[in-house]
Amino acid sequence: MKEFFNVETIEAVLAHAASFSPVDTEMVPLAECLGRVLAEDVFSDVDIPDFNRSTMDGYAVRAASTFGASEANPAYLNVCGQIKMGERPSFTVHPGEAAKIATGGMLPDGADSVIMVEHTDRLDDTTIEAYRSVAPGQHVIEKGEDIRRSEPALIQGIRIRPQEAGLLAACGKTEIEVFRRPMVGIISTGDEVVPVDRVPGDGQIRDINTHSLSGQVLEAGGVPMVFGIVKDDRDDLEEKCRRALQFTDMVMISGGSSVGARDYTVEVLDELPDTGILVHGISISPGKPTILARSGGKAFWGLPGHAVSAMVIFTVVVRPFLDRICGLRQAVRRLPIQAVLRRNLASAQGRVDYVRVRLVEENGTLLAEPILGKSGLIHTMVKADGLIAIGMNKEGLYEGETVNVRLL
Amino acid sequence: MKEFFNVETIEAVLAHAASFSPVDTEMVPLAECLGRVLAEDVFSDVDIPDFNRSTMDGYAVRAASTFGASEANPAYLNVCGQIKMGERPSFTVHPGEAAKIATGGMLPDGADSVIMVEHTDRLDDTTIEAYRSVAPGQHVIEKGEDIRRSEPALIQGIRIRPQEAGLLAACGKTEIEVFRRPMVGIISTGDEVVPVDRVPGDGQIRDINTHSLSGQVLEAGGVPMVFGIVKDDRDDLEEKCRRALQFTDMVMISGGSSVGARDYTVEVLDELPDTGILVHGISISPGKPTILARSGGKAFWGLPGHAVSAMVIFTVVVRPFLDRICGLRQAVRRLPIQAVLRRNLASAQGRVDYVRVRLVEENGTLLAEPILGKSGLIHTMVKADGLIAIGMNKEGLYEGETVNVRLL
Predict the structure, then answer these.
(1) Domain boundaries for CATH 3.40.980.10 within chain B
(2) Chain B residues 313-332 with a CB less than 8 Å from chain A
(3) Backbone φ and ψ of A184, nearest 5°
(4) For A338-373, what is each residue's pLDDT tens digit?
């Protein structure tokens, strides 16, 4: 019996993402914060730096003492001391005086700038010539110039990159509140599917989706929780779905949208408490027969069984939901690579077509070469560098057009 | 005393990368292979799929039985059986016959194609009408069409993405030989630098580089090994360097290229056995006073002390060496994002300038907005989305020029 979908656009599906809540938070040590999503606004306990700091090796001076100095007409300055790293200088720099300072040193009272050692000559133990004039503040990072303790250094909801880890260190954060990594339950279905450690018999194939989807979950900052393979058995499916919903923050069942298993999946969803189907069919290819349900506040996905289709749907549709559940404050900007399409591509109107492409450089131009092939062939994803979209109202793209490539 | 560098171009420095060797290999379970570098050529133990497989729900037929069929003139076919998923059909499809098959099912002997259920009508228990003709091979993945067992499915030296994890599963690989994650020793130097858990006193600043560089090492697939902060003490520095070289595959010392510490670093390198300085100064800004040495076959880096400079040098110079040590077969293609420069940028000739930029979208155009600020300010890296390079022979870039942005 043929089933008719009430197909929705990708945009309409993505609009549901905001209705799911981020997971709760936990504390992690600084060394483990990379890639995690920050869950607190961060303030430094001190100004950074907490003193006027030299950015050069040279002499701390009052800028006015150097005004007018040149190669032809150097300023003569008295060396009044030497600054030790990591200590407050005990003396003051007066007009006409200079104090030896290294990069990172603390400016003494009275000094407002640093003249680079390359622009000076030492005449004797107590006198230098300065060949340039410096401006007030030159070669100095002022107290609080990097981060002021009164202002937030970081706002919650961002993914922590190496530079944010550095900034957290500067702020004295040895422990950081981050969103917990969401657990994502993964279920494969199909009587023909066998686990990786089995040699497939006649008509059997190994489970690919559990492993490609686990990889995509890990890349997105989640933790995959594998529930194994469900044969076409309604009771087993219901029990696995119940367990997955109990122990994880989001569930993905793959193959569950092909005709036989889809019937079971819909049946099971109909029986689970506090569960409703939000989407049943998306105007996208590959991956049209995708299901999205909400069960007890959690997203539950019925993904296509074909390996390529499941990965494309994860990339384009599921990932923004997972980003939201991860605690990311804003939709993640996916900046595309621009390339020139290498051949004509036909497409059906009324749906968005995602085409796998390989990127090839020729004479300095980046070309996108479509990889055609059935959506059941995982090797086409291995050959692919990215995906291009052909919009709803387009009948195709022409060779030579510039396309936006979303890297895989 | 001023030191003169024998400054080399970035290209000349990067050419040294090929002279370092990848680390050794280890076995990891399939579930842990994501992001690792494959160290073996992978063959499947079976053809994938190992049988002719339907890609649709419908009927397995001999294509010739449908030739000429249309809505007006359907072909009548005898239903000779139904294919069970995951089993070899026990019957043969003869001319004029059709066997019910679901997506993923195994084609019976005699059948060479599948007609979609949507293009048929069931007349009674044993007869269907087919409204379309199908070509031989249509809606079928042929035995070995995804992967042939006689050909390598994957070649060593690539980083494993989710799709490669899926392919490894299909090939029956429960354990995979990958390159060990290289250990990277990280040493910070400076009398003014204190650890994160200390409140900086007068003239002191917390250690940023250990944490930003650790993050960069993790992102690159390495394992940071932190050796802490060395005060400006030659013996302590030597001991830490010896230990780091002993226990890791590459060493980065930051701050060790500023005048004081640089002298010590060079002294220490001169005394270590089987050690030679390869590079002392790169025509790049920020980060000119970078040191690269080889010690017992391992790369040893003296990175600048300023937080931004150290991160830029890691991104542009160190990372390709680490990629090589990780076992990656080819130089990693870093595909840039194109954007339009938002203001004029001046630059000195004779060096490559790296400028931090923020990416802003305005009226559908991606703009690169330079973030100016001293290279000692970590918050400028936090604000930045990427880096743009201004070439050796350029005096600058103009507002409105298209620039290539390397994401951070």
Answers:
(1) 10-24+180-325
(2) none
(3) -120, 115
(4) 999 999 999 988 999 999 999 999 998 999 999 988
What does the pLDDT look like over B321-359, one tens digit per residue?
Answer: 999 999 999 878 888 899 999 999 999 889 999 999 999
Q: Which residues of A touch B102 (CB under 8 A)?
A: 258-260
CB-count exposure of residue B18 (10 Å: 0-12, 13-18, 19+) = exposed
Closest chain B residue to the Cα of A89, Cα to Cα: B203
- Decide: A291 and A280 in contact? Cβ < 8 Å: yes
Asked if omega into A49 is within 30° of 0 (cis), the reply is yes
Mean pLDDT, rounded, of chain B: 94
Chain-chain contact of B196 with A147 (C-beta, under 8 angstroms)? no
- CATH class (in words) of the domain with range B25-48+145-179: alpha beta
Chain B residues close to A213, C-beta within 8 Å: 162
Domain A53-141 coded CATH 2.170.190.11: yes
**Smallest Cα distance from B274 to chain A, Å:** 31
Q: Give the CATH fold of the B10-24+180-325 domain.
A: Molybdenum Cofactor Biosythetic Enzyme; Chain A (3.40.980)
The answer for residues whose C-beta is within 8 angstroms of residue B257's C-beta and 6 or more apart is: B265, B289, B290, B291, B302, B303, B304, B305
CB pairs under 8 A between A and B: 293
Which ranges in chain A are annotated with CATH 3.40.980.10?
10-24+181-325
User: Rounded to a whole number, what is the distance in Å from the CA of B82 to chain A's nearest CA?
Assistant: 14
Higher-confidence residue of A95 and B5: namely A95
Question: Within 13 Å of residue B104, how many CA atoms lie on the same side as its CB?
Answer: 24
Summarised one tens digit per residue, pLDDT across range A186-235 is 999 999 999 999 999 999 999 999 999 999 999 999 999 999 999 878 89
Question: Chain B window 100-139: which residues touch A at a Cβ cutoff of 8 Å?
Answer: 102-106, 117-118
The CATH number that domain B337-407 falls under is 2.40.340.10
Q: Does B45 touch chain A (CB under 8 A)?
A: yes
B164 touches chain A (CB under 8 A): yes
Q: With beta carbons under 8 A apart, name residues in chain A contacting B359.
A: 333, 335
CB contacts under 8 A, A 256-285 vs B, are: 258-260
**Separation CA A244–CA A246 (nearest Å):** 5
pLDDT (tens digit per residue) in B216-245: 999 999 999 999 999 878 899 999 999 999
Q: Give the pLDDT confidence score for residue B2 in this predicted structure.
A: 41
pLDDT confidence band for B261 (50 / 70 / 90): low
Query: B161 contacts in A (CB within 8 Å)?
Result: 215, 408
Fold (topology level) of A10-24+181-325: Molybdenum Cofactor Biosythetic Enzyme; Chain A (3.40.980)
Note the Cα A391 to chain centre separation in Å.
25
Q: In A, which residues are within 8 Å of B407 by CB distance?
A: 335
Q: Look at residue A138 and give its three-state secondary structure.
A: coil
Pair A113, A62: CB distance under 8 Å: yes
CA of B48 vs chain A CAs: smallest distance (Å): 8
**Interatomic CA distance for residues B147 and B49, integer angstroms:** 7
